[in-house]
Design brief:
Layout (H helix, E strand, L loop, with lengths): L5 H4 L8 H15 L8 E7 L7 H20 L6 E7 L15 H5 L34 H15 L5 E4 H7 L3 H9 L1 H8 L5 H6 L3 E3 L12 E5 L4 E5 L6 E5 L5 E3 L1 H12 L6 E2 L3 H13 L9 E2 L2 E2 L16 H7 L2 H9 L6 E2 L5 H14 L5 H6 L1 H5 L13 H11 L4 H11 L9 H18 L10 H15 L7 H13 L8 H13 L7 H8 L1 H13 L1 H4 L1
Parallel strand pairs: 1-2, 2-3, 9-10, 11-12
Antiparallel strand pairs: 4-8, 5-6, 6-7
Helix pairs in contact: 2-3, 7-10, 8-11, 10-11, 13-14, 17-19, 17-23, 20-21, 20-24, 21-23
Amino acid sequence: MTPLDPTISTALADARAWPFEEARRLIARLDKMPGGKDKTVIFETGYGPSGLPHIGTFGEVARTSMVRHAFEALTEGKRKTRLICFSDDMDGLRKVPDNVPNKAMLTAYLDIPLSRIPNPFSKAPDETSASEGAKENPYPSFAAHNNARLRKFLDQFGFEYEFFSATDCYASGMMDATLLKMLSVYDKVMHIILPTLGPDRRATYSPFLPICPTSGKVLQVPMVEMHPDKGTIVYVDPVSGKKVETKVTGGAVKCQWKADWAMRWTALGVDYEMAGKDLIESVTLSSQICKAMGGAPPEGFNYELFLDEKGQKISKSKGNGLTIEDWLKYASPESLSLFMFQKPRSAKKLFFDVIPRAADEYLQFISAYPQQEPKAKLDNPAWHIHGGTPPHAELPITFGLLLNLVGVSNTEDRNVLWGFIRRYAADATPEKFPIMDHLAGYAINYYRDFIKPTKKFRAATPEEATALRALDALLAASPAGATGSELQDLVYAAGKDNGYTKETLRGWFQAIYEVLLGQSQGPRFGSFIELYGVAETRALIARGLKGELAAA
């Protein structure tokens, strides 16, 4: 890890951001374990490649990485750590996802391990669009394609991790010793799981799922015999009706979900793994199975789920909510990391309208960081997003203000936007403010897709028209170079002098936004005038008063 600033190190004991609290719980766990102070600390995240990786998958890796970094800071980098991203690609396909091509083809492979299903995608994950002569998808299976896509976006965000495939882990023998251990405590595992199941499921349940040697399917069948001394199980083939004896090692079986999680924790020595609130029961049962095998369940916490615009849980199989690509079209990767950092135990809507606020809040945090006291720096999300070394950033305007500028100027040209920005900060250039240059591109994309189609101008009422004319007169008389604060005072004065009271002044600003910007809310209008220009704002008022904006 990057060495800590000495002034930061002295404040670690008082740091209260949630990754530090999680790291302290992990340290306490390790201190109680025999040899815990010397072992390499294993952090893990899991992913099911039955659907495309979604933003929730990113969130789990981002949050776990933040805890890992906090742990390394608290232990002064003296303990080795690893982050394993585990893909359960040996799982059988239960249903065809809604957001993949060639669904008819996939239907024929239900219950087949994901790593043995042909790849339905014609393009590789690093291709953004179909093109003549595009390379054939090099990934041989459905899981291989989705795994590649997962690794692509993890690499894009610079995560330090090791990728593990369940298929490789089972087939290579990495899990064999733990599988034999589970077989030796088979009755204990059944005693843990069976009370949680309904009668029908209880009749067919087994922690081991044989891979049928003839059909290749993952079979959910009961075991009729167990032979721990031979490392084998016996089941009845559902097609032939004959007994089949198979080893539990070498990839001949995979484990049922909760048993698989426990087996993985035990085999890999996992110390920390977080999970969604919907998996609380699974964590409890898997922990019991882990203990039955002589393992120690990992530390972790349960985060709340993300919701789409309808308030429904996002799902990789449904493809609702946002994708990583969606967010990155409209805002920076760091703003997405901030969204993951904030209130992980609170359910949050994850849709396009949360992006502008996240973008601006991220800018506020990195701008505030250099002037903060050490403890405040450690509680600043920017410290956790950037692994302790946030970039220095002084930005002339906010993302929200930039969005409004794009809308009013009716331009999708970055050079035009930079012309306006230089009115606000004369020495501003894309080279000097590269973050702002990226923001300009994001603002253009967001405006084009979400703001422009919803703009709805209206004509001013007689009272609003009077106040707008007063504002125009005040702007005409304003001195050259008036600041945003001074211009904001003029906006207030125009409203107060023309019938708006302290209680109704909010309606005055709403009128400005609806008549001039075509939306019900907007930026601090004085700052907008300073950026857009007094003459341009007066021309905008004239068009609004004439009804030209509403007519258009």
